[in-house]
Amino acid sequence: IQAEKAGYKHFMLKEINEQPRAIRDTTLGRISLDTGRVFLDNLSITDEEFRAATQITIAACGTSWHAGLAGKFMIERLARLPVDVDYASEYRYRDPIADPRAIGLLITQSGETADTLAAQAELIAKGSKTLAICNVVGSAVTRRASGTITTNAGPEIGVASTKAFTAQLTALFVLALHLAQVRDTISPEQSLHLATELSHLPSKLESILALHSSTKVGMSEGVAAPTPAAAAPASARTPLPPFPFIERRTRPRLSLDEHCQHLAKLFHNANNFLFLGRGIHYPIALEGALKLKEISYIHAEGYPAGEMKHGPNALIDESLPVVCIATKDPNDPSSVLKYEKTLSNIQEVTARSGRVIAIATQGDDEICNLVEHTIYIPPAPELLLPILEVVPLQLLAYHIAVRRGCDVDQPRNLAKSVTVE
Ligand code: G6P
């Protein structure tokens, strides 16, 4: 097993580091970098059917559902086609309105999740064709679908999904681009620009993941020994350290992994975490919260940044770490507008003594003056930022769970694939 982990302490860490390859392999052969055209093989859905489609109905579970929520933003923005996103476990119980021109889209790492298969059966019974985004060739969902976009992430062993998620986001982006080209909703120049930007993602991820010696087992600066904090009652845990004003100004540049280890050291005793995002970054906030709760057993909630004033603001005090996704594409006015709104949400949190960890875009020198901690990711077009910004959230959850002595790859009460309803 140690050999299968390729020197990493856990499968999850190995899989986090495999994401550049997973994204590259999911794009490979599907996009021309000369023209930006998308080629999707083996779909028995014609271009005419895509043009006539009235909507896309996405059904999925867990992390795959978060990918679906982000996919809604991609498809609606690029292809101007309405998208509904359902929990697969809810879909058939709400007596969905039949529309044979709606195309069903099932997103599933395993292709065997019982609820997702049931939603697919319901869609097919109502006359819709179904597409699958799936990581396992030949799985049940792919056998029933009219076409599959395979995510080439390779086998995922860690129960908490990481590389399958970023590969799903990549496949959704490719699908959105394809729909936009078929439906003629973007120009050839935009297509080429977006295809080129997509092709740059793996190397951008490589640059932030660039391994530091402490990441692998057996190196001189191994990850701090796990503490049994998870087992200790909340009252016995040490309080969060005070706001490190001085540290923020003097700490030298850290790698992403070191930075997340540092934050884990500061915040692993928290009882609650909040994750905030707006627009396409909101599903990533949900995913950050899910990663943390499933492997560290800390209660975490993801929330749309603008909804804080309608309830969660009441939770904020000096013991609440709040992870705010505040990235932006400076070339996209709608992205900048959302960013500015998120900045005012961040100020509302800091005014109430919340402990803000911001995920921001390199080059944004303003935000680090407003918050306690800033993690930078490389710039990208708005719809591609989620693929970069989820990685620090995965690493943060990972290092917090390791510090709390949790079984990162096999969290209690959870299964990799849930084949019962
Ligand atoms: C389980 C796993 C999650 C996964 C979900 C959906 O709950 O623990 O990581 O997101 O199932 O699985 P699927 O294979 O359908 O993507």
Put the structure in a nutshell.
This protein has 421 residues and is an alpha/beta fold. The protein has helices spanning 11-17, 19-27, 47-52, 62-79, 88-91, 114-125, 140-144, 163-182, 188-209, 245-250, 256-267, 281-296, 333-351, 385-403, and strands spanning 56-60, 83-87, 103-108, 130-134, 147-150, 272-277, 299-304, 321-326, 355-361, 373-377. A five-stranded parallel sheet has the order 2-1-3-4-5, sandwiched between helices.
Describe the structure.
The protein is an alpha/beta fold and 421 residues long. Helices cover 42% and strands 13% of the residues. It has 14 helices and ten strands. It has a five-stranded parallel beta sheet with strand order 2-1-3-4-5, with helices on both faces. α4 packs antiparallel against α12. The radius of gyration is 21 Å and the shape is globular. The structure holds 6-O-phosphono-alpha-D-glucopyranose. The site of 6-O-phosphono-alpha-D-glucopyranose has 15 residues, from α4. It is found in: Cytoplasm.
